[in-house]
């Protein structure tokens, strides 16, 4: 935690910007990941989405979600999110009869919501820390990388030996499958995201941050930043609608 | 008589909250109106691509504060940009938005926008809504940042599952400008280059 607390420099950033002190390194890894996506993940996801019927893909997704239940349950508990704990535990039990392949829980009003230790650290007040692009795993930051390692260690699947090849392959297999499924589900959206960007790296970097912030808040609106920030995010403080006059001179220029 | 009075009283009690919710959310109705018009444009198969683009541009100008959004996206660089570059940038930015969205019109398959609620947020109102897809169980959450403009409204941002389109574009543009020695002209060139590539590829 001391490690995460030492990121005071984040406060000096422009509102909404991502703290990225190792940008050149990150960009290089991002480029490699993007090549892997183009050469491997994207074609595999395309074949997966075109050849496997929708209901079967749904069952696979539901199974993967069920496998991550212990980690989600543990993290809702650590966050002190009692309604969330009740929901994630009920989901785990409701879907247990078919090892998660049949998703009864969503129909019972218990929709899936994944919780991880990165989010737990966020709830506890840890800042993001520097942005890090992990090889193969993709966008992250110091907080979420620590979270990833903690979730890996806390996951019973990591430690469950078993003498069955299927179970032994699960820890790696589900990550691979999860990546293929995510890419297939968002196939057009991700292609579009790249095709319409002028700086794909910067676009993904800000989307990652905003998405994680939203996941940490579990969809509730952000708290007011302070008396100087009349709107919640603070990012729109300098928004001037067309109906108001715009100051013409550069007298208050910030740069 | 007493009976019918009681009936009326119950009716008023039942109806009152509904009416209040409606009166509360002129911004919500405004967003719903935009969604309806955008969907009817997206499903209009009688128009060619150029007509769709020009009508969608009009629609954006009516419901969104486009010049203010464009200025906001440029952030601190707006002030130091020449009037000619500002104009070229606003044109390139609008073109890229219009092209991106109209080229997705064919993907439309019966999704509906359901407006849930609205809340105040400083000078703005946040309208919360969901895209309900009849072919898919999972709703997509969509929030709209709306500002009062005279006796009507203007949309200034769309937030998809917590990701703000304006903030995303702003960060991306800032990165391009920063990596090109603070030159806004580099951004304009990049936008135009990308637009040419998209048009060539479609």
What descriptors fit this protein?
heterodimer, A: mainly alpha, disordered N terminus, B: alpha+beta, 7 helices
Distance between the termini of chain B: 70 Å
- The share of residues in helices of chain A is 55-70%
Q: Treating each run of at least 4 consecutive H or I residues as one helix, how many helices of chain A?
A: 12
Number of helices of chain B: 7
Q: Secondary-structure element sequence of chain A?
A: HHHHHHHEEHHHHH
From the spread of the alpha carbons, the general shape of chain A counts as globular
Count the E strands of chain A: 2
First and last CA, distance of chain A: 34 Å
Question: Which chains have the largest interface?
Answer: A-B, 44 and 49 residues
Radius of gyration of chain A: 21 Å
Computed structural class of chain A: mainly alpha
Give the biggest sheet of chain A.
2 strands, antiparallel
> Beta-strand percentage of chain B?
15-25%
Runs of chain A with pLDDT <50, length 5+?
Answer: 1-11, 225-230, 248-255
Question: Taking strands numbered 1, 2, ... along the chain, how are they ordered across the largest sheet of chain A?
Answer: 1-2
Task: Determine Rg of chain B (CA atoms, Å).
Answer: 21 Å
């Amino acid at each position: 935690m001391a490690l995460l607390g030492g990121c005071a420099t984040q406060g000096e950033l422009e509102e909404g910007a991502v703290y990225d002190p190792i940008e050149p390194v990150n960009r290089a890894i991002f480029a490699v990941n993007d090549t892997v996506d183009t050469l491997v993940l994207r074609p595999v996801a395309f074949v997966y989405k075109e050849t496997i019927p929708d209901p079967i893909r749904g069952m696979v997704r539901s199974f993967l979600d069920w496998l991550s239940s212990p980690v989600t349950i543990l993290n809702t508990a650590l966050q002190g999110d009692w309604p969330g704990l009740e929901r994630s535990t009920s989901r785990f039990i409701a879907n247990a009869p078919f090892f998660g392949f049949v998703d009864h829980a969503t129909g019972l009003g218990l929709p899936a919501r994944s919780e991880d230790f990165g989010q737990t650290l966020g709830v506890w007040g840890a800042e993001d820390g520097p942005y890090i692009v992990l090889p193969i795993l993709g966008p992250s930051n110091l907080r979420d990388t620590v979270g990833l390692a903690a979730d890996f260690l806390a996951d019973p699947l990591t430690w469950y030996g078993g003498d069955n090849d299927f179970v032994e392959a699960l820890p790696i297999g589900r990550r691979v499958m999860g990546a293929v499924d995510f890419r297939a589900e968002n196939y057009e959206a991700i292609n579009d995201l790249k095709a319409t960007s002028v700086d794909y790296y910067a676009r993904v970097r800000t989307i990652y941050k905003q998405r994680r912030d939203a996941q940490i808040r579990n969809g509730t609106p952000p708290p007011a930043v302070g008396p100087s920030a009349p709107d919640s995010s603070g990012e729109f403080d300098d928004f001037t609608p067309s109906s108001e006059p715009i100051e013409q001179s550069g007298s208050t220029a910030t740069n | 008589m007493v009976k019918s009075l009681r009936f009326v009283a119950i009716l008023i009690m039942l109806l009152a909250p509904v009416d209040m919710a409606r009166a509360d959310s002129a911004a919500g109705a405004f967003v719903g109106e935009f969604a309806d018009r955008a969907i009817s444009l997206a499903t209009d198969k009688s128009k060619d691509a150029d007509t769709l683009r020009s009508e969608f541009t009009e629609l954006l100008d009516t419901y969104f504060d486009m010049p203010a959004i464009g200025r906001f996206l440029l952030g601190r660089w707006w002030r130091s940009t020449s009037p000619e570059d500002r104009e070229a940038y606003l044109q390139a930015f609008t073109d890229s938005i219009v092209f991106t969205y109209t080229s997705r019109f064919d993907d439309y398959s019966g999704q509906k926008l359901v407006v849930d609620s609205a809340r105040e947020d400083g000078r703005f109102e946040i309208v919360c809504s969901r895209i309900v897809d009849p072919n898919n169980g999972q709703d997509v959450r969509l929030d709209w940042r709306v500002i009062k403009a005279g006796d009507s409204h203007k949309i200034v941002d769309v937030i998809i599952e917590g990701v703000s389109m304006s903030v995303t574009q702003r960060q991306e543009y800032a990165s391009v400008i920063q990596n090109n020695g603070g030159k806004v002209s580099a951004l304009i060139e990049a936008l135009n280059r990308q637009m040419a590539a998209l048009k060539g590829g479609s």
